[in-house]
Amino acid sequence: MTAAPTSPAPEGARPRRSLTTAAAFLVGLPLAAGILALVHFGPLRASPVARYLSHTVECVEVVMFCVALGALGAKLWLGPRERRACRAEVLPPWDGKPLPVGEATKLLAGVTRLPGRLRDTSLVNRVAGVLDFLGRRGSAAELDDQMRDLADADRDALEGSYALIRFITWAIPILGFLGTVLGITGAISGVTPERLEQDLNSVTDGLALAFDSTALALGLTMLTMFLTYCVERLEGSVLEEVDRYAARHLAHRFRRAGAEASGVAEVVQASATAVLEAAQQLVERQAAVWAKALEEIDRRRAAVEGQQAQRLTAALEAALDRTLYAHGERLAGLEKQAAAQAAGLMELVAEAVTALGRQQAALTHTAEGVHAQAAVLARLHEDERHLIRLQETLANNLQALSGAGAFEEAVHSLTAAVHLLTARAAGSTFPAVKRPGVAA
User: What gap in Å lies between CA 4 and CA 125, rounded to an integer?
Assistant: First the structure.
């Protein structure tokens, strides 16, 4: 920002308008010299750009344009510092309660101790101006008017800081028209009909040079106006932020009282203070009474809750005792029934075991009889095999006897053998019975 302070600025602040003006010439003139050197003596000498910088008026236009660029560049270089100041804590935090006007002097002393990068900014100058006004007047009765005056003064200063740039924006087209006039004058001076017939190009070249200066001037003017508009918008947004900060942190920070009614205001303030103190004491006493009442209520509630807990515990114990006694009796009856049922079951098991013993003895006797019969059957089977072999032998003997012619003797012998075998078979099964007249 380039607005000059409208009130005593913090110690160490520098006038920013002079800084912008100095930067316009310190930056713009070397920049113009560099551009002209590149065009007339450097690599751009043969480029189309050289056509628009061949006349002295055109060189002056470039110089003035570079001066305007230097001023605008200085403003852009100061812009970030202004925005950092708007985000910094210039004033201490405020709880929203109005402060005595005497606090303005302390706040102003704190503002003067801010770092150097913040002191020379629009925000700090505005805050310092408001605090200085309150400190010198000792009252905040006309604070709103003073804040409006400071805001208007900052805007007027901002408008005035563009005086050089606006002059250059106005002067460059004038120089273009001047170059056109000079070019036309130089082209048509000394022109004769014979020269027009022999060398018409010299006249047209002079006219082209004249109109090139106007074209260059109009182009530089448009560019300067556009850059000026952008920079001015940026600085205007910073001033709006400063206005919002002042309205938020300074407009209602201090107590307001008119000078003609200061005595009445003091009496009213003293009465209000006394009323507030009495109300505060009354509230404290009422709070103490409420606290004591609440404490007594809590004590009684605790006692009642203790008694109820004891009664509930006793009732639960009695109910549990009755329940346990009933369960015990029921369990005893169940145990007796279980014991009787177990005794009857044991008797049944004993009887079953005895019956099983008798059945096992009978089965053993039966098995012995079956075993004896099996032995007899085995002996019979063995005798049967002997009989079969004997029959085979007899058959063989019969064949032999038939071959020898003693068939009758063989028949008697076979009969005797059959009787003998029959007797042996009868003797092995039943006791032998001796018959008279039969040999054993």
Answer: 9
- Dihedral of CA atoms 85, 87, 92, 94 in degrees, nearest 10, equals 130
Of 421, 65, 80, the closest CA to residue 237 belongs to 80
Nearest CA-CA partner of 71 in 134, 8, 160, 149:
160
Residue pLDDT, tens place only, 43-99: 777 677 666 677 778 888 889 999 999 999 888 888 888 888 888 888 888 887 888
Phi, psi (degrees; rounded to nearest 5) at 6: -100, 0
| Separation CA 286–CA 276 (nearest Å) | 15
Contact 274, 118 (CB under 8 A): no
Q: What is the Cα–Cα distance from 141 to 162, expressed in whole angstroms?
A: 35
How remote is the C-alpha of 263 from its chain's centroid? 59
Closest-CA residue to 428 (of 374, 371, 380): 380
What is the pTM (predicted TM-score) of this model?
0.51
Token digits for 340?
């009787």
Instruction: Give the orientation angle of helix 56-87 with respect to helix 16-40, to 10 degrees.
Output: 140
Q: 339-360: per-residue pLDDT in tens?
A: 888 888 888 888 888 888 888 8
Grouping H, G, I as helix, E, B as strand and the rest as coil, residue 184 is: helix
pLDDT at 197: 59
Distance of CA 146 to the CA centre of its chain: 48
What is the arithmetic mean of pLDDT over 331-335?
A: 87
Cβ partners under 8 Å of residue 356, min gap 6: none
Instruction: Note the pLDDT of residue 282.
Output: 86
